[in-house]
Amino acid sequence: MAAKKRSEMMEETRAKLIASARKAFAEQGFAAASMDELTAEAGLTRGALYHNFGDKRGLLQAVVDQLDTEMAQRAHAIAARAGSDWDGLLAEGVAYIEMALEPEVQRIVLLDGPAFLGDPSQWPSQNGCLQMTRQTVERLIAQGIVRPIDPEAAARLLNGAALNAALWVAASPDPQEVLAKAVDAFRALAEGLLARPS
User: Which of 21, 83, 131, 140 is the most buried (most CB within 10 A)?
Assistant: First the structure.
């Protein structure tokens, strides 16, 4: 059997570290997770962590990127099944907010992520979400469903509203109660963009 390429081995190492860190951060939180334990769980050394991610914070960034990308893909898939661009836009935002109830998302992306990585709207993974929302808004404007406003401004405000609602749900002592309020408010805000409000 041919030896694995160096790039394949590096990718395998990164994947093992991310999987181990994802489990540790979800169960213990970023601050309490031990680098020695999570590298041992992956069957690797601290040196592998430093080589691939620089430090524990770099590993958190990789885990958050992975989770945030998965969240965006799931929300986009829900939007695709909604039937219309408008319903899809609403469904995507609501789905993102609802994911704040999931323990892994709540702890890693919405609580530890902002605490240790800063403003989530500046994370690289958020750019993909923003561009997809902007494209949807542009289509809705072209269809006459959304009033003719700047698509980037509308996309940023919609994404910001969904993100902040998810952060609120995650940080709340009663996430279920807050979720209902957040979803109602998100829908009402989004409907303000309609050319012919319902």
Answer: 21
Tokens 């661009």 identify what position?
85
Describe the chain by its helix, strand, coil percentages, rounded to 5: 80, 0, 20
DSSP assigned state of 109: I
Q: CA-to-CA distance for 153 and 147, rounded, in angstroms? A: 13
pTM confidence score? 0.89
* Count of residues making up the chain: 198
Distance CA 120, CA 107 (A): 14
Complete DSSP assignment for 126-163: HHHHHHHHHHHHHHHHHTTSB-S--HHHHHHHHHHHHH
The one-character DSSP state at 32 is T
pLDDT digits (tens, 9 = 90+) for 88-127: 999 999 999 999 999 999 999 999 999 999 988 888 877 7
For the record, the structure tokens of 167 come out as 């952060």
